[in-house]
UniProtKB/TrEMBL annotation:
Lineage, highest ranks first: Bacteria, Pseudomonadati, Pseudomonadota, Gammaproteobacteria, Pseudomonadales
Residue(s) carrying 4-aspartylphosphate: D53
Protein name in UniProt: Two-component system, chemotaxis family, response regulator CheY
Signal peptide (from-to): none
InterPro entries: Bact_response_regulator, CheY-like_superfamily, Sig_transdc_resp-reg_receiver
SMART domains hit by this protein: REC (SM00448)
Amino acid sequence: MSKTVLIVDDSASIRQVVSITLKGAGYQVIEGCDGKDALTKLDGRKVHLIISDVNMPNMDGITFVKNVKQLPAYKFTPVIMLTTEAGEARKEEGRAAGAKAWVVKPFQPAQMLTAVSKLILP
């Protein structure tokens, strides 16, 4: 059975690029357009990994990750932050919230798939 990845980004084009990359590697993909929307997708189904933007309307990525970590079913779901932000302070904030990796846009599909395969839940 293939593994499911939730992509959270307010940019439809970024979601599309990440989705094509992941589907090409055999993953199932669920999309959320911001943190609030993405939380509604975490409805008990198995999600093996989350890829989230940082800067989004309604609920930013850091707040979203903090919320995910409060949900017993998704507490251990690994999160990769995908963002234009490369600052150490933001990375630290992401790590503190529970993010496992930080991929800076624009990203190379191969780099993204390496991070996903390393972190995705068995």
